C-alpha cells in the first residue's frame, strides 16, 4: 500500500531560531502545485466527520498547523488508509479523484487546506456511489 493513490506525506523545512519557528509552503516546490486557494477548518468537535467527498480536478495539501486530526483516504475499490496529522511542519498531499474524510479533530485543531483550484461546486463528488462509478469507469 505504498504510494496509495499517490497520496503522500510531506515534511516541510521548519526554520527555527531563538524567536520561534517558521514554516514555508511555496507553490510548485514545497507544495506540488500552484496554489489558488487557502481555507482552514477549526472548531470541529472530535465526533464530526468532514470532507466526505472527492474532487475531480482539485489537488490539496492539508496541514494541522495546530492540534491534530486524522484523514481517511478511500480508493472506491475497498482499500483505505488513515493518516495522522499532528505537526505544523507535516502535511498530506491529496491528488484529484481521491475520497477523503477528516475526523478525530482535537479541540485545538486548525486544519489548513491548500488547493490547486478556486472553489467550484461542480468539482466535488459528494456521493460515494458516484465516486466509485467515476473512479472505476
Ligand atoms: P464543505 O465542502 O462541506 O467543507 P468540508 O468538506 O471541508 O467539511 O464546505 C462547507 C461549506 O463551505 C459549503 O457550503 C461550501 C463552502 N465552501 C466555500 O464556499 N468555499 C470553499 O473553498 C470551501 C472549501 C467551502
Could you please describe the fold and organization of this structure?
This protein has 137 residues and is mainly beta. The chain has a single domain (3-135), classed as Sandwich (Jelly Rolls), CATH 2.60.120. The chain has one helix at residues 128-136; strands at residues 8-11, 14-17, 20-23, 37-42, 50-55, 60-66, 69-74, 80-85, 90-94, 99-103, 110-115, 124-125. A hairpin with a 5-residue loop joins β7 and β8. The relative contact order is 0.29. Bound molecules: thymidine-5'-diphosphate. The site of thymidine-5'-diphosphate has 7 residues, from β4 and β5.
What proportion strand?
35-45%
Q: Briefly, what CATH class?
A: Mainly Beta
Shape: globular
Rg, alpha carbons: 15 Å
The count of DSSP E runs of length 2 or more, i.e. the number of strands, is 12
Q: Please mark out the parts with pLDDT under 50 across 5 or more consecutive residues, or reply none.
A: none
Overall mean pLDDT stands at: 97
Count of the separate structural domains: 1
Q: Write the H/E string, N to C.
A: EEEEEEEEEEEEH
CATH architecture: Sandwich
Question: Which structural class best describes the helix and strand composition?
Answer: mainly beta
Give the distance, in angstroms, between the N- and C-terminal Cα atoms. 22 Å
CATH superfamily: Jelly Rolls
Bound molecules: thymidine-5'-diphosphate
The helix count comes to 1
Q: Sketch the major β-sheet.
A: 5 strands, antiparallel
Helical fraction: under 10%
Amino acid at each position: 500500500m505504498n504510494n496509495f493513490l499517490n497520496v503522500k506525506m510531506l515534511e516541510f523545512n521548519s526554520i527555527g531560531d531563538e524567536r520561534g519557528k517558521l514554516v514555508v509552503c511555496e507553490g510548485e516546490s514545497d507544495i506540488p502545485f500552484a496554489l489558488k486557494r487557502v481555507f482552514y477548518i477549526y472548531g470541529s468537535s472530535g465526533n464530526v466527520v468532514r470532507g466526505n467527498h472527492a474532487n475531480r480536478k482539485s489537488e490539496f495539501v492539508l496541514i494541522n498547523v495546530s492540534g491534530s486530526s486524522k484523514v481517511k483516504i478511500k480508493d472506491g475499490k475497498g482499500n483505505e488508509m488513515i493518516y495522522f496529522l499532528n505537526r505544523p511542519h507535516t502535511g498530506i498531499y491529496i491528488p484529484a479523484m481521491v475520497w477523503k474524510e477528516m475526523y478525530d479533530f482535537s479541540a485545538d485543531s486548525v486544519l489548513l487546506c491548500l488547493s490547486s483550484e478556486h472553489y467550484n461546486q461542480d468539482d466535488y463528488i459528494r456521493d460515494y456511489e458516484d465516486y466509485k462509478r467515476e473512479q472505476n469507469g
